């Protein structure tokens, strides 16, 4: 009986430990090494481009407000009427900058 118990004990101690990974471990294992082959991602926009985008967005907002104020006036002055085409051109230029930089930012995200 003693030998049988000793044999069972040695068999239990000599058996390899089998562990089943938990779902959290499995998620970590899946992502292991995925970043090795890829280059680090560059930021979507440089610091200068981010500043330019913010400036252009502010300019678009201000130009739209100025145009709306002139158009809402019951009797705009001749100076205000003469400013409208120039304001609309500036608005188009700033909107193009916003569109270009936004598309660049979204393309890299």
User: What profile does the largest beta sheet have?
Assistant: none
Shape label: rod-shaped
Number of strands: 0
**Terminus-to-terminus distance:** 70 Å
Question: Could you state the order of secondary-structure elements as H and E?
Answer: HHHH
Could you please describe the fold and organization of this structure?
This protein has 109 residues and is mainly α. It is 72% helix and 0% strand. It is built from four helices and no strands. The longest helix has 31 residues, at 78-108. It is rod-shaped and about 115 Å long. The termini are far apart. The mean pLDDT is 81.
Key phrases:
single chain; mainly alpha; 0% strand
Give a short summary of the structure.
Helix content is 72%, strand content 0%. With 109 residues, it is an all-alpha fold. The longest helix is centred in the last third of the chain and has 31 residues.
List the helices and strands and how they pair.
Blueprint: H1 2-14, H2 23-31, H3 47-72, H4 78-108
Helix pairs in contact: 3-4
């Amino acid at each position: 009986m003693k030998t049988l118990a000793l044999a069972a004990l040695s068999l239990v101690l000599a058996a390899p430990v089998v562990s089943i990974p938990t779902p959290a471990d499995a998620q970590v294992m899946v992502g292991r090494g995925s970043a090795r082959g890829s280059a680090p991602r560059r930021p979507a926009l440089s610091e200068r481009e981010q500043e330019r985008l913010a400036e252009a967005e502010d300019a678009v907002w201000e130009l739209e407000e100025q145009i709306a104020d002139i158009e809402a006036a019951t009797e705009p002055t001749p100076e205000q009427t003469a400013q409208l085409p120039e304001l609309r051109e500036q608005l188009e230029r700033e909107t193009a900058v916003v569109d270009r930089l936004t598309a660049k930012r979204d393309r890299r995200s």
